[in-house]
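Whiteboard transcription, Tuesday session. T.W. wrote the structure tokens on the left side:
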């Protein structure tokens, strides 16, 4: 009987998976699972593609004794396995056992030798073998019945290689592969081979003489250094070949005739995978036996379901009792004229209530006003009864939204791990309950299940936040901000449309003029949006030197064009054209059409997008309007007060991250510089360049400013040299001098990185965590990124927390003190208001007081407040 058996090199796949899946993944007990997830992804992809009749997995077991005895340095250069990878091997073996995949480990032998032995036994039985490995040594095993499956890239791109593929790729047969390794060595395994012989030479010699024995039989036909190296390293060539030869006759028990796949029990797999919260791989594995996850679905109490007056009475009872109500709205996938609107469900302790359309909105409005509720995205749901457009009637007031007891599950999930890409019912349940939502068939069923899930998740997430130490930042900072942002989104921002349209006409004229200049310099018209055509003009027509190459040809990115600008005026014109064209298309052309019925632009503020804790803005993104360019200022001139005669007031923290660096590091000189009231950059320049303060030049101050801000962002000498366009050695000397004059900063940053490496995360002043898996990466660039992130997060994340705290207090005081002024926009460290002229001075004093005193630091927080007719003039 013909049979196809797959043999997995477990160590090879685990290492590849660990480095391919960099997203932090953990089981409920904190065990990392990224390598396990990647391994399962590769395994499932392979099984779906190759459909083997049986699967066996081999793992290394201890040191390869016989190879180390023969060659002491064998694999000696390899660093110890990362602990986060090491702890995942037992997990993977446990899951393979649940999948009824035999795991073979032989003390003192490597996985390769198990692969070779299984392949040899299969050939005796006439079975086909697929060896799944990333190790090229396995090519020596390729035959008519044995092929090698190799991952080319990441965890999903694979190739299947038999004797023909080996010959095509290396120019030698599988039988010659050990000779090939013996000659050229293998740096990955620390096998020396013969000095001076690389892959091409080894292939050429074997093509000519057949084997190492053949080479030495004809050694007299060789010449020069090659002959000398071969003669002097004869023993090493044969020893290297022996070490690289896979053993194919190990003694272990494995009945290849009876083993088969799939032969696992669904319940066993569900239990094992559920333990580590690997729900998506579980579903994929169960599909192999036409099964679906069942045991891990949450068992919700979905009755009684009340409607109409009974439902309203139940919600009235729950609100009066202060009982938590889970809320979910499900919008119809296809909107029609006959839809009643979104289907809503509300889960109380005793029942579920369902409603739709206006009835659902009325019920929810009462819950917002009087109840305690939880939802996946509170702001999104509240906008159903409090639309983000003042032209539409609201069922609740500003004050009621600001006072609501709405618990946001997505924001809680974000507080626990800001690196996750999405916060859904399924992802939160999988992470904090080890389960999934049950399947539903109708919108009503889906709403009921999600409402029950919301109610279930609330205590689970609060328990996790408490255990994680991040409950306070969620409860005191992020959660109150939900109502503030909801009100801000309804408030919106006003535009001077006539000025914007005039700016659009001016911008188009400038673009047309730039285009004409570019065509004249190029000597011909071309598509300015085509990198390929631009590369043709730059490097072929104008014959400028190419700077770097990518997959599509020579690069024309901004960095390349900046370098080329010193050689020819065209690249600088292209940069200006790109900036104008992008801003015109993104803002000037789009903003008028993004106004709601009330004529205002209502951006969406996102609490769960950035990893730092900062808010982001979308539809439109008001945070990306350039501040320092003339074009950006002209766009800001189009933002005005909300009402006729209103002014635009801007309050902006000055150097908040540098002030936080002084506070957190406690460096006496940096603290003194801020407390003195002197210009920080001039003070730094005087200390770094060793001159008196009055001798500091403009260039010195500019360089000191770059170093000050660069230190906050973990910038190294190379980055500083690029930004200042100075030699690397000079940049390195400036950074060294900076740390000499501010030694407390160096000590603080070093300790911060060390603490983050040990804990796996960095902290803000207020306990907000940023998990940084890159700190444990074996990739040097990723590790360096992790270190920069660890340095920066305490400052950037604390600044984000501080402005959120200020927003919460400012909004409270606006209402408490009866201001007509309204908070419209938050951009990084800046709050923007629409204010009647009569309130401007009082508002400025109130906002400045709150922002400067919301937290007590070792140095003063200073806020610049200005008001004028437009955003540009007030900034």
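and on the right, the sequence the group agreed on:
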């Amino acid at each position: 009987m013909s049979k196809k058996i797959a043999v997995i090199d477990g160590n090879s796949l685990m290492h590849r998976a660990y480095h391919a899946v960099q997203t932090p993944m953990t089981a409920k007990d904190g065990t990392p699972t990224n390598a396990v997830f990647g391994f399962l992804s590769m395994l499932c992809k392979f099984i779906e593609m190759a459909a083997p009749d049986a699967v066996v997995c081999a793992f290394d077991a201890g040191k390869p004794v016989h190879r180390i005895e023969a060659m002491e340095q064998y694999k000696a250069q390899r660093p110890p396995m990362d602990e986060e990878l090491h702890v995942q091997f037992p997990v993977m073996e446990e899951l393979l056992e649940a999948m009824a995949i035999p795991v073979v480990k032989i003390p003192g032998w490597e996985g390769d030798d198990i692969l070779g032995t299984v392949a040899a036994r299969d050939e005796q039985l006439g079975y086909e073998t697929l060896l799944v490995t990333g190790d090229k040594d396995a090519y020596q095993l390729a035959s008519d019945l044995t092929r090698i499956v190799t991952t080319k890239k990441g965890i999903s791109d694979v190739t299947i290689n038999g004797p023909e593929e080996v010959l095509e790729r290396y120019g030698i047969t599988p039988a010659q592969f050990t000779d090939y390794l013996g000659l050229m060595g293998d740096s990955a395994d620390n096998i020396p081979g013969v000095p001076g012989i690389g892959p091409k030479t080894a292939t050429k010699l074997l093509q000519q003489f057949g084997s190492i024995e053949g080479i030495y039989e004809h050694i007299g036909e060789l010449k020069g250094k090659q002959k000398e190296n071969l003669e002097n390293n004869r023993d090493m060539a044969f020893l290297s070949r022996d070490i690289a030869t896979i053993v194919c006759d190990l003694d272990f028990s494995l009945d290849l005739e009876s083993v088969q796949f799939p032969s696992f029990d669904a319940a066993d797999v569900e239990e094992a995978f559920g333990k580590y919260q690997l729900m998506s791989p579980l579903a994929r594995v169960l599909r192999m036996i036409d099964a679906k996850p069942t045991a891990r679905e949450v068992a919700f109490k979905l009755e009684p379901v009340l409607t109409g007056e009974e439902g309203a009475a139940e919600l009235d009872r729950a609100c009066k009792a202060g009982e938590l109500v889970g809320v979910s709205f499900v919008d119809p996938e296809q909107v029609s004229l006959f839809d009643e609107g979104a289907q809503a469900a509300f889960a109380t302790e005793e029942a579920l209530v369902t409603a739709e359309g206006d009835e659902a909105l009325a019920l929810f409005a009462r819950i917002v006003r009087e109840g305690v509720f939880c939802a996946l995205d509170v702001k999104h749901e509240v906008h159903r009864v409090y639309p983000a457009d003042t032209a539409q009637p609201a069922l609740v007031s500003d004050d009621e939204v600001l006072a609501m007891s709405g618990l946001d599950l997505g924001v809680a999930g974000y507080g626990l791990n800001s690196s996750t890409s999405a916060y859904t019912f399924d992802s939160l349940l999988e992470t904090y309950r080890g389960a999934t939502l049950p399947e539903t068939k109708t919108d009503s069923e889906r709403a009921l299940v999600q409402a029950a899930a919301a109610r279930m998740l609330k205590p689970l997430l609060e328990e996790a936040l408490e255990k994680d130490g991040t409950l306070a930042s969620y409860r005191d900072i992020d959660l109150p901000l939900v109502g503030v942002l909801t009100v801000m989104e309804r408030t919106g921002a006003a535009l001077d449309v006539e000025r914007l349209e005039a700016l659009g006409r001016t911008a188009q004229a400038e673009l047309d003029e730039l285009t004409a200049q570019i065509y004249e310099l190029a000597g011909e018209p071309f598509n300015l949006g085509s990198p390929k055509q631009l590369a043709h003009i730059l490097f072929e027509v104008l014959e400028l030197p190419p700077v770097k190459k990518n997959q599509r040809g020579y690069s024309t990115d901004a960095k390349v064009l900046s370098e080329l600008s010193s050689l020819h005026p065209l690249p600088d014109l292209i940069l200006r054209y790109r900036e104008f064209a992008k801003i015109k298309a993104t803002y000037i052309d789009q903003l008028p059409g993004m106004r709601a019925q009330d004529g205002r632009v209502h951006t969406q503020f996102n609490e769960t997008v950035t990893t730092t804790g900062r808010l982001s803005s979308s539809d439109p993104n008001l945070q990306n309007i350039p501040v320092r360019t003339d074009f950006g200022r002209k766009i800001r001139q189009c933002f005005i007060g909300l009402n006729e005669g209103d002014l635009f007031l801007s309050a902006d923290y000055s150097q908040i991250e540098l002030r936080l660096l002084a506070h957190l590091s406690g460096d006496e000189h940096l603290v003194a510089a801020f407390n003195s009231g002197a210009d920080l950059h001039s003070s730094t320049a005087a200390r770094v360049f060793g001159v008196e303060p009055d001798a500091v030049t403009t260039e010195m101050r500019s360089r000191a400013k770059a170093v000050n801000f660069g230190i906050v962002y973990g910038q190294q000498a190379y980055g500083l040299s690029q930004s200042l366009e100075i030699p690397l050695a000079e940049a390195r000397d400036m950074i060294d001098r900076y740390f000499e004059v501010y030694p407390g900063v160096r000590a603080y940053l070093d300790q911060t990185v060390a603490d983050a490496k040990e804990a796996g995360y960095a902290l803000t002043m207020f306990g907000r965590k940023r998990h940084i898996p890159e700190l444990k990466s074996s990739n040097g660039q990723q590790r360096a990124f992790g270190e920069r992130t660890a340095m920066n997060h305490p400052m950037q994340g604390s600044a984000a927390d501080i402005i959120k705290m200020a927003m919460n207090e400012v909004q409270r005081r606006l209402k408490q003190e009866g201001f007509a002024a309204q908070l419209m926009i938050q951009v990084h460290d800046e709050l923007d208001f629409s204010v009647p002229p009569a309130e401007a001075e009082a508002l400025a004093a109130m906002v400045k007081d709150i922002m400067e005193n919301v937290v007590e630091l070792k140095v003063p927080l200073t806020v610049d407040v200005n008001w004028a007719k437009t955003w540009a003039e007030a900034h």
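Someone added at the bottom: The chain has 37 helices and 24 strands.
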